[in-house]
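HUMAN: Quick job: go over this next protein and say how the chain folds.
***
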Amino acid sequence: MLFKGKERQKACLGVVIGNRDFFPDQLVSEARKDILELFETLDIKPVLLGDQDTKLGGVETYQDAVKCAELFKDHRDELMGILVILPNFGDERGVAETINLADLQVPVLVQAYPDDLNKLDVARRRDAWCGKISVCNNLYQYGIPFTLTSSHVVSPDSPGFSQELLDFVAVCRVVKGMRKVRIGAIGARPGGFNTVRYSEKILQRNGVSVTTIDLSEILGKAGKLDAAESRVQATLEQIAAYTALGKTPQQSLIQIAKMDVVLNEFVEENALDATAIQCWTSVQENYGCNVCTSMSMMSENMQPSACEVDVTGTLTMYAMQLASGSPSALVDWNNNYATDPEKVVLFHCGNWAKSFLPDIEMGTAPILGTSVGEENTYGALSGRTPASPLTFGRISTDDPKGIIKAYIGQGDLTDDPLHTFGNRAVAKIPDLQGLMQYVCKNGFEHHVVMNASHSGQVLKEAFENYLGYEVHQHA
């Protein structure tokens, strides 16, 4: 399931084709043709010099760099990243000066063509292996962060490069999205949850804005809505289409729908990308239902919503959906799975996106119900997540260090038997015990985010190389 709630912008990359005049000219023309064909196949919009703008559309001189930089500036709002193509040795100064003059502050991927062992004569040799080192040296000197292909040289027509380019686009998407995130913090965190405290100032310094509202304002507005209003009736229809309703009373469904209307208005009015909500116990005690269904629907619609006002949790959910193009879920590292040291039970009351819950059904939250009355917890969702790839991780602010830090890893969700309630899954993670040691020793929260993908390397590259987070990648 790809982006539904918010139209995903078509990927747009600037292309710099490096050249040196004493190498064969046809190499530049061939590279231009190769990359345009690849971009069309992968549905990526290219921005590059025309073959009449400079010699064959390549970048070699300072004047070429100025032309290319000006072109990139004209497309500043579209460009997510820059691809450097080296069909031959290239001119390291021209490449570095182009990116420096454009000053877009976007990710950069450096590709170099391989030589053919049978074509190392003057007419066909490339020397791009060597030239790539020189280009990267100059980028390093300019202080421009960049991404490397896994193989030092790789042809654009290889399947491996196509996947690396798509992964780079995902890195660009994460970097662009995370530099201007708007999160709504709805209500105060539950009193017993010091674990979800965070530094709003550190987030703001890194481009993450937090808009707060008291929960009473949401509940008050919801309480004033008439059940017969068209907005409420339309939401009731959406809820019925979204999940099996189980034994949920009509009055509880109306309460859920009214609150959903107000929450979505708050999101729209403040142009929010994600929310973190005080999901207990005030909602149940003062309003009479759970907010899980609304949170699940928002997350499924690519507007992630985290419980317990976990702002950095929902920030992680947003990052993972940018990387993968699919919804994320906030979960508890909850239980051991029998005696298997590499398996763990992931759990939450009931707000995971529908994509994780093929057997989704509305019901109550039994654990919470023991203190607030189970009749006041309708709206929690139940369902078991089936086997799938797993990326897990967590962003956190570290106040003593004044930084944003994160851990990221991959594993698998399994179909192992699990007899319990709520939203639940079993995960198999290599060296899980070592991971738990790291989580505990480094003061991370009991919440972690899961995504049904293997996008850990994309997140690491975006967080560490371009956003400046301190990142631990779990083996």
The first strand starts at residue 12 and ends at 17. Confidence is low (pLDDT under 50) at residues 1-7. DSSP finds 15 helices and 18 strands in the chain. The two ends are 28 Å apart (CA to CA).
